[in-house]
Amino acid sequence: SETLLKTINDLPFITTDGKRVQMMINYDPRMDSKETRKLKTDGLGLLRTEFLYLGREIPPSEEEQIELYTPAAKKFDMRPVNIRLADLGGDKVHSLKLGDYSEELNPFMGCRGIRFLLKYPELLTSQLRAIVKTSAQVNAQIKIIIPMVSRLEEVLETKGIFEQVLQECSLQGIYPKNKIDLGIMVEVPSIALALDFVLPHIDFVSIGTNDLIQYMVAVDRVNEEVADLYDPYHPGVIRIINDIVQSCQQKHKSVSVCGELASDPAIVPLLIGLGVDTLSTTPRMFLRIKNRLRTISYDTCANFAQAALLMGSSEEIKKLSLTIVDENS
Length: 329
Ligand code: PEP
Ligand code: MG
Description:
It is a single chain. The protein has 329 residues and is α/β, with parallel strands linked by helices. Helices cover 42% and strands 12% of the residues. The chain contains 14 helices and 8 strands. It has helices at 2-8, 34-38, 62-75, 114-119, 121-135, 152-171, 189-193, 195-198, 209-217, 235-250, 268-274, 286-294, 298-308, 314-322, and strands at residues 22-26, 44-47, 80-84, 141-146, 181-186, 204-207, 254-257, 278-281. α2 links the parallel β1 (22-26) and β2 (44-47). The chain is globular. The relative contact order is 0.14. Phosphoenolpyruvate (PEP) is lined by residues 46, 48, 87, 187, 208-211, 258-259. One of its GO terms (cellular component) is cytoplasm. One of its GO terms (molecular function) is metal ion binding.
């Protein structure tokens, strides 16, 4: 009930057997409300920045970007604030007038996310500068997430440009208050399976299950015709999430889930059991997921995950997930 959820807001983020899980929210200022402001969180897990760029021909200025990032960062004060570089293209259809950019037959496989930013590096440097300038003014631990990474080279190139921006800023006397960590969205299967080569170059990983599932099962995430084939319980999906988490644990890097799966109470035990250390949910689902976390044991989740990894059909895995019931109710 609502009152139960309210009392949960003040309690720690732990399972019944004391496993601490970080819980953050996917947030941007458009979601600001009395309810969202009251939530006690470990931080901002995903700030999508695309909306600043949509429905216009000229990209936002640095000042405009800073006006978005600064109040968001101030809300989360000393905590992590994960700003994702603009993931333009794919389902985030924009009308920016840039060079020879033209319509694509297959935008989900096209010039999207970091590919787009590296093709128009002035967009990338402008966004990185805005983030560094913001970080000089706020106490939050600003982190940068690179979207749609499919190749190691994209990470190295972005990192090089970021270091250049940091250096240029320092020449102007602009220094981040805290070191800015750099991480990637893992949402393309190729990079998930080659993650051990990327991890030495980055600080953390965030799994974008919305895209990862679509690219794993070859089902367009916005196509109603095939919506029933968009299957989070597919054994291949569970295996690849397991692979990602294993790679991260071996290299001692934090791994979060910020896609919709983290806001799904039926799937959260599986994610925890696989070893995901951070969940970033929608503000609306935050307390419900927290309640779910607080009423299951890590032991049960781990057993569930190990069993699911041995199952060949999603029906079987889904059925098993329904047997994970709250231990307090
Ligand atoms: C995802 O792909 O899971 C994700 C969090 O990013 P978006 O939904 O913005 O593509
Ligand atoms: Mg995505």
